[in-house]
Amino acid sequence: MNLILLAIIALGTIGLIAAVLLYFASRKFAVHEDERIGEVSAVLPQANCGGCGFPGCSGFAGACVKSADEKGSIEGLLCPVGGQAVMEQVAGILGMAAEASAPKVAVVRCNGTCENRPRLVDFDGAQSCKVQQMTGMGETGCAYGCLGCGDCVTACQFGAIRINPETLLPEVDEEKCTACGACAKACPRQIIEIRLKGPKNRRMVVLCNNKDKGAIANKCCTVSCIGCGKCVKVCEKFEAITLTNNLAYIDAEKCKLCRKCEEACPKSAIHAFNMPPRKPKAETPEVPVAPSKTE
Amino acid sequence: MKTFKIGGVHPEENKLSAGCPIREAGLPKQAVFSMFQHIGAPANPVVKKGDVVKVGTLLGEANGFVSAPVYSSVSGKVSKVDVALDASGLRRMAVTVDVEGDEWDENIDRSAELVRLEERPELDAKTIVEKIKAAGIVGMGGATFPTHVKLCPPPGKVAECVIVNAVECEPYLTADHSLMLAHPEEILVGLRLVMKAVGVSKAYIGIECNKPDAISLMTEKAKQYPEIEVVPLQMKYPQGGEKQLIDAIIGRQVPAPPALPIDTGAIVQNVGTCYAIYEAVMKNKPLIERVITVTGKSLSQPSNLLVRLGTPFSQLIDECGGLPEDTGKIIGGGPMMGKALLSLDVPMTKGSSGLLIMNNKEAKRAEMEPCIRCAKCVGVCAMGLEPYLLAKVSGQRDWDAAEQNDITSCIECGSCQFTCPSHRPLLDYIRLGKSTVMGIIRSRATKK
User: Cys-Cys with B407: which of A2, B32, B155, B402 at CB 3.0–4.6 Å?
Assistant: First the structure.
């Protein structure tokens, strides 16, 4: 009887002392986390894709709260997966207005399908674009085009990109794509670009990444950009197209979607996304072509 | 017989062109001289379109210490200074020359007469290195590291011996073998020049025992020089690797990078390099031609050809009986470490030791299967690494783990992939990991 009593008293005392110690310790070493971080984190998509540039969604939430406290705005921070809707919610929690952000999408800037760009050799090594890139040019004569092993497909967490078995090129599902940029990072040839989606998802893109001189680029692919500069000329008014390293680039912010460049491109390297089909041209009397010398 | 201690494999020899004497290949119609024929900074083209060049005219000057000049191996007119496809599969800067006649620079001594070291007492170490540097000589075993850099050990490191790499452990290749049979005396003089340049009094020539004729010939000729010893070696791949050869001959191991082979006191030179050194120093002939083995089971005449650099590979195949119909792959180099070519129009470079035509059956890679954890790759790795692990972490892009497991020590010999019963592309991933980790280490060094 005595033993039991002793045990209860001893253990009770130890428990009491420990409780007091723990109470003070929890006060002393308490980590004060801003409640808003949890709240912001809750509205984020929890994909932890890193597309925002921070390690995971809680990292992004912390950055939002910090920015709101220090700068008074969450300017420059964007969750590409959640987009405008989520950013508005985040702004609401932090008590400020959301910055208007234009939605973006991944665009594969290569149209070197099996027909357009013939395979010269067969690559039978490890099926990884990065490994194939180390062999030099790859299977085709183009040193800048898609290698087709699907590193971008493996990188995508949202199942938004897949290799089309007919063209052997990756295709982006615009509905699923969150513009997190994982595919763009995975591509060893920097073919994938995260671009503005454009009004009504309409956009003009140069579907080529070839920086070789015109003669070489022309030989390896039927739809390569040869850097002739015709598109730059027709776009003189808007100055949306620039030519660097024998490759034309359309600035999505300046582009007015007039589609003149598409017409001007002799190699059909410029592609219009989600545009209505062109109206058939009004019948114009054909201009008589000067007879060529061979005839 | 001696050999290296760790790992190694025994691929089928297939030395089809063994015993074939060296044959001189014809002049090309057009020669392309890549400015990227060596490791280090590319050469700077110093000619322009329309310039008339002779054999031995400088086309590209060395761009820094770890670099080498490029000389014309033909006479004619420069038709292009532009990018051209080379054996690496990339389009890189090159000088194209349209060949007209065969006019040599008058400083080059074209006689076949042997010049001994004793006949040229005025040559001191500095002059020899300067001449080697000016001749654009690089490691001819395939690594193409500028030779003069190797002959100038970093301060604090002393060379004790020179080892000549005449192992030629790659299957199929016989270029070094045929060179030894044709020019043993010249090679020995070249070796003595190297010994004088680095100031050592001991040299070894390592030859694998599958070349008994070369061993006996070299031993006989080397009798006149007591400081040179011919060492017959047991056959094992990759014995021709610099680190493996040092281990096999003097029994010392090169520590992990950044340590260099010179840390063991040995300087290794390929037998082809020794011959080129002889020609450069004694005959004033820059590196403009080399011996290459053109071989393959379906090829009608496997041969050892003496070829002017810049000659397109397609011409070499024509000289050996034309491209067989069942060609599956064409490999620049040997079957173990060579690289499949994208096109036959690429030119011969300083490092081209072989051109191998594989037939369809040989060329096909077997289907990859899951790893069965047999650890054969670990057993054969000549550097004592764990290839399965390195390939796995490289595939997962875990560069830290790759670095911790010494991926930078890999010599890319391909023994692991050769031995894998599941035919896994181990080396493909290890190469990817190695190049990435080297990049990370370099950027870390520049940040500091």
Answer: B402
CB-CB neighbors (< 8 A) of A136 in chain B = 88-90, 342
Residue B354, Ramachandran bin (φ over 0: left; ψ between -120 and 50: alpha; else beta): beta
Question: Phi and psi (nearest 5°) for A243?
Answer: -120, 110
DSSP B359: E
A273 vs B193: CA distance, rounded Å: 68
> End-to-end alpha-carbon separation of chain A, Å?
125
List the single residue in A128, A130, A136 with the smallest CB-CB distance to B89.
A136
> DSSP of B75-130, one letter per residue?
-EEEEEEEEEE-TTSSEEEEEEEEE-S-PBPTTS--------GGG-TT--HHHHHH
Q: Hey, is the C-beta of B88 within 8 angstroms of any chain A C-beta? A: yes
* Three-state secondary-structure class, residue B57: coil
A52 C-beta neighbours (distance < 10 Å), count: 22
Q: Read off the pLDDT of residues B350-385 as tens digits, 9 standing for 90 and up.
A: 999 999 999 988 888 888 899 999 999 999 999 999
In this prediction, residues B89-105 reach a mean pLDDT of 90
The alpha-carbon gap from A120 to the nearest alpha carbon of chain B, in Å, equals 8
Q: Are B240 and B141 spatial neighbours (Cβ–Cβ below 8 Å)? A: yes
A118 touches chain B (CB under 8 A): no
**Whether the model pTM is above 0.95:** no
